[in-house]
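Researcher: I'd like a structural prediction for the single chain below. Treat it as a standalone chain; there are no partners to consider.
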Amino acid sequence: MKSRIAEAISLNTAPVAILWADEKPAQALQFTEGRWGCVVSMLKAAATGKTVVFDRKTFGCRGGGTGLGFGNQYVNFPGGIEYFLSTGNKQFCATEIGKNIVRNMPALEHGEGYVKTPELATQFAKTLPIIDIPHEYVIFKPLAEVSESEVPKVVVFLVNPDQLSALVVLANYARATNVNVIAPFGAGCHTIGIIPYQEAEMPVPKAVIGLFDISVRKLINQDILSFSVPYKMFLEMESNVSGSFLDKEVWQKVRKRI
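Model: Treating it as a single chain, here is the predicted structure.
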C-alpha cells in the first residue's frame, strides 16, 4: 500500500502500519520472552523496513504491554506504577525483593518525576483507555507491505516539525472543526497504541501526536515525533492530498528544506 501523504511530505522513513492478528508473520523481529525491550525501538525498526511482532509474553516492558493493548500490565508493576511515575517507593526498595529490582531500575526508588504525586499518577493510570485486544499478536510493518487482505488499526508517521505541520493541517483540511489532532500525555507506546485504538472507535476519530515520553526521547532523533492516525482517518487524509495545500507553492518551498 503506497501512501500519497508520505510522498507529499517527503517522508524519509516508511509509514508504519499497526495490525492485530492471530497468525505470527514469518521472520519477524520479536523480543525474547522475559527480556526487557522498548516498543519504540521496534517502531523505528518497522519504519526502516522490518516487520515486528509482539504477543502477551514478548511485549518488552509492562508499559509496552499496556500500550500495545495486552491488558493492564501495570497491576504487576513492582512497587506500584503510581510511585514509579512520581516520587518513587523507597520503602519497597528497602525490601529484599526491592533491592534486587532497583539495581536495574533505579527510578523505582526516586521516581521518574513525570507526575507530581502518587495520587495524581493513580488518576492518570485510571484514565488510560486500557484494552485487552481479542487477538494473539500486534504487528508493526511498513505500510507498503500491507496486503489487500489486511486492515491496519493505526498508521504511524515519524516526522520532523515541517512534516508534522503538514499532517496537522491535512488532518483538519476536510473537517468542520479545527481540533482533529490531540497531543495527550502518556508513554510513547500509549500514543501509538491504545490512545489511537480508542480514537479508531470514535465516529469522527482524531490523530494523535506522540513520543513526548522523556524516557524514549533518547532512542529517537531530537527532531522526530510520531503522528498516529486511525486507519479510517488515514484513508480520509490520503483522499485529500490532491488539490490541497500540498500541491501549492508555499508547501513546495517548505518541502525543499526537508
